[in-house]
Amino acid sequence: MSNLDLRPTATDCGGQSATGPVRDLLTGRTVQLGESTRVRRLLPTLGRRMVGAWCFVDHYGPDDIAGEPGMQVPPHPHMGLQTVSWLHDGEVLHRDSLGSLQTVRPRELGLMTSGRAISHSEESPADHPRLLHGAQLWVALPDAHRHVAPHFEHHPVLPEITAAGLRGTVIMGTADGATSPGTTYTPLVGVDLTLREGARAQLPVEPDFEYAVLSISGSVEVDGVRVEPGSLLYLGTGRTTLPLLARTDAAVLLLGGEPFEERLVMFWNFIGRDHAEIVQAVQDWDQGDRFGVVHGYTGERLRAPALPPGPLKPRGRVR
């Protein structure tokens, strides 16, 4: 998925330092995505830039798209990151410059590793379900792996964890002994948790990871803080268990990982290490070099936005 803002500001990747547990509730801002989809952007925000290597989180829906085109994101480039597509309702058709053509459905992992360069498009199929509801996430690649060959993975079956009134699908990484088949390049985890009303759970977590919980639907208390749909609770580090209490039937995404210490530049759909690298990526995309061609999408590809007047500076996670 793309950042479609044609006048983006440079994003200071990284985040505020957090040693030990915290409870920082963040609300998203509404962003127009493509022709007809509006999303709530939870990362990056002014108060929080990253959670582990997770550096971008959009939550969208549930939207009634009966008789509407639904998601329509034209071909656009990515560099230095992974995209994670996750649905609760609907279908998204993924095309990329490697020739991949895959429909991603609810609770299936669509994982694209851009590495040095890739381009892709995302759209609701012509004959699509009525509802569209899900999340799009990015993972920053560490320096040692950010130039890997681009590739796309589709995992229709993922491992699950269960407890009384709780079912979890492990999207990325390892949780409670269950490991996702999705390729990771830093220690991280992503879990979709579905809870029945009244369910209480103590979810085991890694004390060296920082965590956040994104509310997808319903109402849940996370470590005593009520989290409603479209909000993100940043939890910091230092926990071994995470208390959960479902006030209604609810679903949340648990995101976590080792704090990402590298200094990054994130502009539009590119993650690099310095200004010159981003400038080169913009030029390559506009000139049709390096990122390949997405075949089969009806419509024009996106053009890169203008670079800001000043140099882009790499930033760490600590302000």
TrEMBL record:
Which Pfam families did the record assign? Pirin, Pirin_C
Segments of this protein annotated with the region Disordered: 1-21
Q: How is the cofactor bound?
A: Binds 1 Fe cation per subunit.
* Chain positions recorded as Fe cation binding sites: 76, 78, 120, 122
Q: Boundaries of each Pirin C-terminal domain copy? A: 191-291
Q: Does the keyword Metal-binding apply?
A: yes
One Gene Ontology MF term: metal ion binding
Give UniProt keywords alphabetically: Iron, Metal-binding
Q: Does the keyword Kinase apply?
A: no
TM ranges: none
Signal peptide range: none
Q: Which cofactor does it need?
A: Fe cation
The Pirin N-terminal domain is annotated at 38-139
Give the family per the record.
Belongs to the pirin family.
Identification of the protein by name: Pirin
